[in-house]
Amino acid sequence: MTQTAFEPDLAPLDNEATTENEPKTDHGHVFAPAALPGAAIAGGVLGLAFIALGAVAVRDIAVNANWLDGRAWSVTAAEWIADLQWQNWMWPAAIGAIILGLLLLWIAIKPRRRTHLELAGGDGMWTRPGDVARRCSAAVSDLPGVLDADTVVTRRKITCTVGVRAQVADRALIDTAVATVAADLRSSPKVVVRLRERGTRSIR
Fold it and tell me: Residue 82 CA to chain centroid, in angstroms?
């Protein structure tokens, strides 16, 4: 009796859990695939520098503990810095430090480069520019009179260079094939189709 009484209350809880666990595919919650941030490379270099400083600290501890002979490098560096006086070579060093700091700041805040193109079929669906280029070339290569096709895809433009037999190839079919592939992209890139007749250098 007790089990039967609680069964109606379990169903709504299961439905709520299922809804919460479903992935959010709304466009505002999906992040575009992007390249490795520049800060990762700079952070790796700085990390190696801090590891080197840690190694120096370990070495100085060993010297202070009389495990190694010599003088602590940190003490030597501190005394050298304390004895420094302003010299002309410090001007370019100071300017270089400022430029390096601004460069690191820009690397930290600059947006990451987009690596994929968003598809128009739904939120959260992406494809690589190289895959779009292969699709364009494959679609055009199946048409009559087409000998070869070479496609270059960027975020704003699709350029397809097609080798054809002028007597057989149909320019309208070629344009339609490339435009059909471009229509799958949300960004609606500009489509440029160039025809190259076999045995000629002219492109139109």
Answer: 45
